[in-house]
Amino acid sequence: MKIEKIVKPFYDGLAEHKLLGRKCKECGAIEYPPRYACNTCGYHETEWVELSGKGVLHSIILPSTLNADPWNASLGDYAYGLVELEEGPMFNCTVFGINKRSAKKLRPLLPLPVHPLFADKDGVTVVFFEIDKVEGIK
């Protein structure tokens, strides 16, 4: 897969199991996934910063026939959800370790802490998230 120069640092970070975002030089807001202009204040100058990867899951959406992903399923149980990183960015992503039964138990406990999970997909490292261990829930 050919990676454009402009996003190469992002994918290089993923290959090293690091999350990189863009920090606005004007207001300090952090964009993840990275963008080259600030969505908070509109300023045009941003810089690469490493993110902790720590965050919380705010929602759980189980895959259905229309949005199921066989590649994801080959890695294990998963759902989709809104994740907020401790640095502030919020985004929708795939979260592993959730099935129909556990989703029912987990939803009342939201928000739940998550951490990044890196995988190789078609020769490129990609990132997903996984719920931190929750006692009594599988």
From TrEMBL:
InterPro entries xrefs: ChsH2_Znr, NA-bd_OB-fold, Thioester_dehydratase-like
Cross-referenced Gene3D superfamilies: 6.10.30.10
Domain ChsH2 rubredoxin-like zinc ribbon: from-to ranges: 12-42
Alphabetized SUPFAM superfamilies for the sequence: Nucleic acid-binding proteins
Top-rank lineage group of the source organism: Bacteria
PANTHER family: BLR3430 PROTEIN
Protein name as annotated: Putative OB-fold protein
Species of provenance: Catenibacillus scindens
Higher taxonomy: Bacteria, Bacillati, Bacillota, Clostridia, Lachnospirales
